[in-house]
Amino acid sequence: MASGPTVSLSSAPSHKPRLRFWQIWNMSLGFLGIQFGFGLQNANVSRIFQTLGAKIDDIPILWIAAPLTGLIVQPIIGHMSDKTWMGKWGRRRPYFMAGAILASLALFIFPNVTALWMAAIMLWILDASINVSMEPFRAFVGDMLPDEQRTSGFAMQSFFIGIGAVVSSILPWLLTLLGVSNEAEPGVIPDSVRISFIIGAVVYLASVAYTVFTTREYSPEELKSFAAGEGKETVFDGKIQTAPASFTRNGWIWTLLGTVASVALWYYNASHAENPLEKELFVLTGGVAVFGFVQLIAGAIARGGKANGLVEVVDDLYHMPGMMKKLAVIQFFTWFALFSMWIYSTPALAQHLAGTSDTSSAAYNEIGNWVGVLFGVYNGASALFAFLLPVIAAKTSRPLTHLIALVAGGVGLITFYLFKDKNMLIISMLLMGLAWSSILSLPYSMLTASLPAHKMGVFMGIFNFFIVIPQILAATLLGFFTKHLFGGNAIYTIVLGGMAMILAGLLNLRLKDKS
């Protein structure tokens, strides 16, 4: 029997009723499985690639499929889930379950592949499946909770994300302690990794299924009643706000910019074969051209008097709510900072603390192991801070709480340079834990308060652009900065990330909380 909100349609209140703690727990627990899948992917995919013969310089381009998949899949799934209602299965839950089944199958198959091209395809399938589950979960909180409880709802997701990240990251290590082999023949993935992925598949499917079967969603009629009581738009009339000529004009501009930049990059690399620019830059320039081409297609469809899903998504991108635009800028600088930490922590600290860049040296690998511990610290701390953030936000405001958390995280990154004792970096990671907990909850809490109820999913998917775009920029530009501006000293790249996160925090001063 599903336990969840129950509302009589004949006497539906004008505002969403508050949910109990365990109802919020039930609707959030599925994120444990989603993060388990992400955690196993993030911690082990590069290892799998190298085991199957990938050169270290090729790993970034192999990884680029993951953010690009999210860029494409999330707004599509968001748009589709906004328009879905399957009776007792609800609106978002069918996508949770479909994504969980596909992701669990991918987790079973991934560590058994025998060729690099198979691993690259499985990464794409796994990431697409995870995104199918994850995107509706964000909109789910907006659907189910009144605004005054959304911070608690997203904070509960942060708690499960923290737990899932810690356990999934250390799972191969734990299995090794229990006697599972951590070594294998060349080209063969170790048992510790294979069994970790099998456990991850079971946890993923079980936790998402728990949420699906213990939570009942509000019907479209109930959501319409709630939205009307909040004075929000509730019905999509099919009208596109952007003129077809605007789609076409902007499409040509973006297409030409991307094409010219791609040609210029190709010419530069052909002329400087001994010292070419990073090949990942083609992803950036090509992405600009593709974005323009998509707008040209939308313009052509709109001129024909039609308004299909593609036209609606591009139109929504042009007409984001004001709060969403401000939060998007904050997200951009926040995630640029995060990727600087994720990409460069090990090489930066190995240079700065151990004075080595030799990846085969004992000192380098000791720092690498310590970075794994530090990442566990900030993920674990974020799970604990998840219970503190709603209290601070209730006593102050969500923008001020997010400002404090991001500034703390920025200071934490800058202390990578200041601290000379690796043990002191635990303090840095505790500060990052506060920031990470807030990043996973407060922007979404503020965003859902500003979104129309009937477009919660698609706007949450579009909001993901401002996570993916800085990830692509970080993968392309940070290498250039490190090499050409910082003389190869990656510690300064971490400091740059800290400054970007502090800037993101200060940009919260532009926000006015609707709560």
Polypeptide structure, described:
The protein has 515 residues and is an all-alpha fold. The chain folds into three domains: 21-230, MFS general substrate transporter like domains (Growth Hormone, Chain: A); 244-318; 320-515, Up-down Bundle (Growth Hormone, Chain: A). The protein is 73% helix and 0% strand. The chain is built from 21 helices and no strands. Helix 2 packs parallel to helix 5. The two termini are 34 Å apart. Residues 6-11 have low confidence and may be disordered.
Précis, in short:
Helices cover 73% and strands 0% of the residues. The protein is built from 21 helices and no strands.
How many helices?
Answer: 21
CATH fold call of the largest domain: Growth Hormone, Chain: A
Task: Find the structural class using helix and strand composition.
Answer: mainly alpha
Q: Please write the CATH class name of the largest domain.
A: Mainly Alpha
Share of helical residues: over 70%
Tell me the strand percentage band. Answer: under 5%
The CATH superfamily of the largest domain appears as MFS general substrate transporter like domains
First-to-last CA distance: 34 Å
The radius of gyration computed from the alpha-carbon positions, rounded to a whole number of angstroms, is 23 Å
Would you count the extended β strands for me?
A: 0
Largest sheet: none
Low-confidence stretches: 6-11
Summarize model confidence as the mean pLDDT.
85
Q: State the order of secondary-structure elements, H for helix, E for strand.
A: HHHHHHHHHHHHHHHHHHHHH
CATH architecture of the largest domain: Up-down Bundle
Question: How many domain modules?
Answer: 3
Shape: globular
